[in-house]
Prior knowledge:
This protein is mostly helical.
Amino acid sequence: MMQTIMMETWRSVLALWQSAIARMPGTSWGRSIWVLVIVTGLWAIVPAPAIAQLKQYAPPVSYSNAELSGQDFSNQLLKSAEFSNANLTDVRFNNAELPGASFSGSLLKDTQFRGADLTNAFMDSVKFIGTDLSDAILVEAILLGSSFQDVAIEGADFEMAILDGAQVKQLCAIAKGVNSRTGMDTRESLGCR
Length: 193
């Protein structure tokens, strides 16, 4: 229906242009300039599909600098959500979809990410203490400057994640299992020898 209205509008506009151009004095160059001015003005008035899509875009959720101890975000879609510099002690993200989420500088003490998708997540300068990353997907996640203490990573997929050499060595010492969704071996994804 919307396409029909748009087509009828364009037909009306074209008919008006043709009659207006025919009545314009001057050379064909002068007419061309007037047509260009009219067309440029109409693009500002007629909504483009990209503008319509912007109205449907919801900005990412932001919990930056928040105290979220004990919260449960399990099974939620939190694409590009912001959890930077937050206290996430005892928070559950089990089976949550968190691609592109940011946890930079956060405290993840006894936090659960079992089966969570953390693809392209920003997890730099994070304190992982007693964190459960079992079966989590950390493909292309950024983990530079993070510390790991008593973490569970069985079946976690770290393929192409950005880690410090010391982090890789530490995680390889406890790495085992295969990710249930990606089929990637945890040791292989870390590049363990």
